[in-house]
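note to self: dont lose this again. the chain is below, predicted strucutre after it. 249 aa total, dont forget to put it in the shared folder this time
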Amino acid sequence: MPTEEPVLVAPKTVKKVIKIVEQPLHKVTLPDFAKIRDVKEKKRRFFAFIKPTVQAENKKILILRAEVARLIAQLTLEQPFSAEEHTLVSSLSKKYKVSNKFSLLRQLYELQLKIDIIPLALVLVQAANESAWGTSRFARIGLNFFGVWCYRKGCGMVPGSRNNGAKHEVAAYSSISLGVARYLHNINTNGAYTVFRSIRGQLRDQKQPLAPEILATGLIRYSERGIDYVLELTDMIRHNQHYFALYNK
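---
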């Protein structure tokens, strides 16, 4: 009988998968929010983590806002400005994108419209929404809890879903305070949020509280999701009132 030739089986090639761990672009020790399974505990820890920085940055804005109000009163009373005060107005106008071709009084009123706080509750829910409760790559690696973009090569992290030809990056920061400050400044100066600032200014003129649910409607251009994004923010504000009440004491 003929003998069968042995079948030669090629050895299996084992592919070794190497997982590249992206290193943080900062030296801040963050809580590992992904490991917190209890939803209430995760919310409590996240809000408690972000809250002090938001309050501190808002306080800085209020101090600057009070200075602008003083200058408006001084100009209204026709009291001359010192060289230092003129320099301050010029510096603030440049920082907050107010035209120096405006009259001095108009510059100050434009600054008053832009130099103002964003309510704690609104900032907290945006941070939670944009960072997936502190678990997103951009929050962990670059301390960017608000999805703020930058446009200089190497200024941050390249989004994995970035379209071909796009050049934006998601900004990276060296501290939580810097990230929060840049977010607040973006809302206060970016042309996309003119409506937000107008609503806030009207509430101020009417001596009404800066209601986060109302102000959220001015952030329709913050996300490509538009009105759905605004509705999600307002829903988050309503469902997390307990935490905000604790932090506003």
